[in-house]
Write a structure and sequence with these properties.
alpha/beta
Length: about 220
Amino acid sequence: MRRCPLCFNDHCQLFFENRKRCLYHCNQCELVFADASSHLPPNAETQKYRLANNKSKLLSQFMFDLVSQCETGEQALLGLNFGRTLDPKSLQRVTKRGHQINQYDPSIAPWNRELKQQYDFICCYRVFEHFRFPKKEWGLLCELIKPGGWIAINTPLLTDHTGFDKWHHKNNLTHVSFYKQKSFEYLADKVGFKLLFAANDLILVQKPSGSGITRDQTSIVDRDF
């Protein structure tokens, strides 16, 4: 038996196994997750993560679309690019519109000042699949987003159990968490956030304006992706 790293359910079953690792399925939040014994050593994981961090054009478009949706014309926005980094040219395009984007890359800095303030929006482009402890990371994101703010997540959703063995997304060993729609419904319901599923693997989550979830300056959340 394995404990789900998202909802802490102890009743998880073996879902998939090959020569490299075993994956388990949670029957409560529907997360499919890799056995911790198969997680790559930190140095190897960081190396693979940096080599795979080549989605600059896709990330840039994702960020521009997010900024456009969040703009009200009334005030400058403060956003966080969580888990990856925009190239300087793309970052400048956003700042020219009067907004500020802070960037947090865990492969460079496990803890820094970008995680000590709140944001109008948070961009999570292809990072949720790297979360070894998604419950902790989700808790951090809930604290970092301002009431009324949006968290934009891009991660391939698991929709077909029968075709999992042929799903290329699982072959990257730094991908250790695979989500179904129910997984995000579970996360949103636990904190009372609004949840929208859009096209192209886009999940939008909004923190209610009256939410009591605030940044706890004394809390420390382990960064393990």
